[in-house]
UniProtKB/TrEMBL annotation:
Gene3D superfamilies: MFS general substrate transporter like domains (1.20.1250.20). This is GTR9 protein. The chain crosses the membrane at residues 115-138, 144-161, 173-192. The gene is Slc2a9_0. It comes from the Eukaryota.
Amino acid sequence: MWNVLLSFSGLVALIQLLFLPFFPESPPYLLLQKEDKAGCLKAMKQLWGEGNYHTEFDDLMKEKSITKGTKIMNVLEVLRERSVYPQLCTMLLLLLSLQLCGLKIFQTANLQESIIPYVSLGVSISELISIIFCSSIIDRFGRRMLLCGGYLLMALILVLLETSLLLSDQFLWLRYCSVVLIFLFIIAYGIGP
């Protein structure tokens, strides 16, 4: 039944694609990039119902005046911009390592095949927890604190994970600790970086 489980995310994406044309554009996008004031107010009314949105509109107008001289770059322009190469390389390496390390860790931990579906479910639940938790604390602590703390926590978890994988042949219970550490790593990644 794995094919059904994997196709479920495709079904959700298809539903989103079908209903997306019926939703209005983002009001900031309409005002800041398209310069469509009437469309912006119309989108606000569609999204939030009837009401007076002059305060929100004025905030968007202030943002527009601040960013008036700023050039909006597309993806190719960002990739050509040398000043963002360190950040792009860091993100690329991090994302690649996340994609490649999961399979190797589960193989190294020698988990029973009957447990692997539950581990996959646990990974998804960890991602959900991190999304919910991050969205509730980001305004309180700020992005910089979450980034620094997240990277430090991830580094500590990776050290513990490597240790548990090295000792998993001697202590069988460390295999399960490895799985818990993977969940914690995903949560730390989702909350921080």
